[in-house]
Amino acid sequence: MSKQSDMPVALSIAGSDSGGGAGIQADLLTFAANGVFGTTAITCLTAQNPDGVTGIEAMPADFVRQQIEQVHRYFTIGAIKTGMLFNDEIVGAVSGFLEDHPDIPVVVDPVMVATSGAVLLHEKAISALQLKLLPRAAVLTPNLDEAAVLIGSRANTAEGMKNDALRLASTVGVPVLLKGGHLEGSPDVVDVLAFPDGTIREFSAKRIENVDTHGSGCTLSSAIAARLALKDNLVQAVGEALGYLRG
Predict the structure, then answer these.
(1) Distance (Å, rounded) from C-alpha 70 to C-alpha 171?
(2) Which of 2, 56, 227, 242 is the most buried (most CB within 10 A)?
(3) What is the rounded CA–CA span in Å between residue 230 and residue 226?
(4) Tens digits of per-residue pLDDT, 78-113?
(5) For residue 20, what is the DSSP state?
(6) What is the pTM of this model?
(7) For residues 241 and 223, is the Cβ–Cβ distance under 8 A?
């Protein structure tokens, strides 16, 4: 391979899903499908399949940073996506790199708890995430449960989602895409993109029933990162990524 890929390059900093449906495996598939060369820094190994997680082995934080640095030395990174970071040491290692390279746009998927209930981010790491990583994001992509951890309340209506997205964007100081897939009782899925200045953009689509949603959050955030690496603006990137996810 040449010193620099002719394709735009994206980096996934996330956990490995042995079942292949989420984590770096889903991210690499998504990068490739969107015309972006995918690179990785693995934060954790997991023993899992779509039904659940039975084991997690975290990488040493300095080794996570070493992986990131090696990718950066060889490639021009167009965008970064962060997923499962697991502990405060890894959060610190990642945010330290981002502090040194503020020009690279970062999509932060604040992965906290698996659908099966497995804890994917230690409670002690949540404050590190809020203080060190979230302010460096080009966009933050929480689901309703993750947003509830960050702001202390969970929306149960589309109007409540708008309020929570604006509140979180104002608190963190970066754009927030609040994902509405977990909002019950609606035939439509509404996702709200809120900006710190109070601007809102809504994306609405008919809910697709009876599909396995394992890895959908990883796929969406990595698709946004791919589109940012392709130089889309944020609204374009989110719209294209949502379209890819539905496809």
Answers:
(1) 33
(2) 227
(3) 6
(4) 999 999 999 999 999 999 999 999 999 999 999 886
(5) S
(6) 0.91
(7) yes
